[in-house]
Design a protein that fits this description.
Layout (H helix, E strand, L loop, with lengths): L1 E6 L13 H10 L6 H20 L4 H11 L10 E2 L6 E2 L1 H13 L7 E2 L3 E2 L5 H10 L4 H21 L10 H16 L3 H13 L15 H21 L15 H5 L6 E6 L24 H13 L9 E8 L1 H7 L15 H4 L3 H11 L10 H4 L2 H7 L2 E5 L1 H8 L10 E7 L4 E6 L14 H12 L5 H12 L32
Parallel strand pairs: 7-8
Antiparallel strand pairs: 1-6, 2-3, 4-5, 7-9, 9-10
Length: 505
């Protein structure tokens, strides 16, 4: 890897294109490298993972709205169109990426990478896949495109913090998806450079979508970035140009949205010929919740199972989760959001409330992507009473471990201190989730397949489950025609009994 220093340049300073971050990203994307077998296997895992969580969300309102929007648009003239999860129809690739991106993101249940910023790199898959289907690319070409998307997003997340300035993390997704599409299509460096600049310029937004009363837009934000990436690549292929230098310019992203004119960032990128392995640094979720909650769910359900009397709020005086700055301030009591203790809050808000999540996992000894968020579950009196005794606090050591570059000590959990009503005390800690590569039960192919089967139960027919798994696991050898099989058709269309709410389209 090569560490690239990125800073702001005044308009009077010359910054040649080869020294711009967007150009360096484009150079990585323009190089056609065959992925290692280990990387290819992980791409297959993540396609299965995305399909699993999309399948589980097919009947949810945001997915149905996005799907009907996509179905309102015919296939564009330049190709065969792209498939939509849950739909028998094809549509133009940018709209397929939109609908499928929402389906993948809705339950907050797919893969994650956390460093200077945070991300869900699986969000790269819908736009790259949609373009591959539309333009008749092979499975091997799709794998290379997805590998680039993961590589660029992970490298940007390692080097540049967006959330520090309340910029939504999808600002790293727009450029990475554009780069991935560039690799898929074998585009030259100049074209990818222009697409990366446009994709970044059109996908910067504030983090209010993940603050306070969290709305359905949380699921739409990455889908919008994927849609914008496809449109940016299309314009760049037609010779259209972009704001430049988009990162380093005097009025660019760093100068006005991030650390300002005196900022210095270090972004690692692969050198020429170096295998793209960033996908191997990412990790998926066993539970449908914010990633920082994964380890806490595992600890809470173990504590509740071993000590069932902890489930009664009468036995507990207080519960304090000592954790990282990010966990405390984003999903903990340090956020200052009263909604995180509101039993009538939306699913999206409860998903970002570690006091709620810890309480329910402690009481139930399990976590379910539907039942754990049900209004009747959130409103249960004994849960509300215990929930309001749970707070978080930042511990500098857990913050340091959260940001550590050493995978063996990087941690996303913390230490819980429970003060009991009888004066007793329980102290336990957990560093990583059970499903993490260094956890108690790391996810491998069998776990991804099991997750898909579990979430597809009652939604897909058995033969459809087997068909999809067969296609996905043959990914590198798929022909262009077979690539259309990377979608799912439910046993019963969730729109069958739903009135279609009209919009503009």
């Amino acid at each position: 890897m090569i560490d690239h220093t990125v800073r702001v340049y005044r308009s009077t300073e010359a910054l040649p294109r080869p020294e711009q971050l967007a150009w360096k990203i484009a150079e990585v994307a323009a190089e056609q490298l065959d992925p290692t077998p280990e990387v290819t296997d992980m791409v297959i895992n993540r396609i299965i993972d995305n399909a699993a969580v999309a399948t589980a969300s097919l009947g949810r309102a945001p997915i149905l709205a996005a799907r009907t929007q996509a179905e309102a648009h015919p296939v564009s003239r330049g190709g065969a169109g792209a498939t939509i999860f849950g739909s028998p129809e094809r549509t133009s690739p940018e709209w397929a990426a939109w609908a499928n991106g929402v389906a993948v993101r809705e339950l907050d249940y797919h893969d994650t990478f956390l460093a200077a910023d945070y991300s869900h790199p699986g969000d790269n898959i819908p736009p790259v896949l949609a373009v591959a289907q539309h333009l008749g690319r092979s499975g091997a070409e799709l794998v290379r495109g997805i590998v680039t998307g993961y590589e660029i997003q992970v490298d940007l997340v390692k080097g540049i913090s967006l959330h520090k300035h309340k910029i939504d993390h999808v600002a790293h997704l727009g450029p990475s998806a554009a780069a991935g599409i560039g690799t898929l299509l074998g585009l030259d460096t100049e074209t990818i450079y222009q697409a990366v600049g446009q994709a970044l310029h059109t996908t910067t937004a504030t983090r209010q979508s993940r603050k306070g009363e969290i709305s359905t837009w949380k699921a739409y934000a990455p889908a919008f970035a994927g849609k914008m990436a496809i449109e940016a690549v299309d314009r760049a292929m037609r010779g259209q140009t972009s704001p430049s230098p988009i990162y380093e310019g005097e009025d660019g992203v760093i100068a006005w949205l991030l650390d300002g004119p005196d900022a210095r960032y270090t972004v690692p990128l692969p050198e020429r010929g170096e295998p793209r392995t960033a996908i191997l640094d990412t990790y998926t979720k066993e539970h449908s919740a914010e990633y920082q909650a994964q380890a806490w769910i595992d600890l809470a359900r173990r504590l509740g199972t071993e000590n069932p009397w902890l489930r009664d709020p009468a036995n507990v005086r207080s519960v304090v989760l000592h954790t990282s700055h990010h966990t405390h301030h984003v999903i903990g009591s340090g956020s200052g959001d009263p909604q995180k203790y509101d039993p009538t809050a939306s699913r999206e808000t409860l998903d970002h409330s570690i006091p709620y999540i810890f309480t329910v996992a402690l009481q139930d000894g399990t976590w379910d992507h539907v039942a754990s968020y049900a209004p009747e579950r959130a409103g249960r009196p004994d849960t509300v009473e215990l929930w309001r005794k749970v707070t978080t606090t930042e511990d500098p050591e857990w913050t340091r471990r959260y940001h550590s570059a050493d995978p063996s000590e990087k941690a996303f959990g913390g230490r819980v201190e429970i003060e009991l009503s009888d004066g007793g005390r329980i102290v336990e800690e957990i560093a990583v989730a059970d499903a993490h590569p260094l956890g108690a039960r790391p996810f491998a192919r069998d776990q991804y397949v099991r997750k898909f089967r579990t979430l597809a139960a009652g939604v897909l027919a058995d033969d459809e489950v087997e068909r999809f798994l067969d296609v996905a696991q043959r990914l590198p050898e798929l022909t262009a025609d077979e690539l259309a099989g990377l979608t799912v058709t439910p046993a019963r269309d969730p729109l069958a009994d739903q009135p279609r709410t009209p919009g503009i389209f």
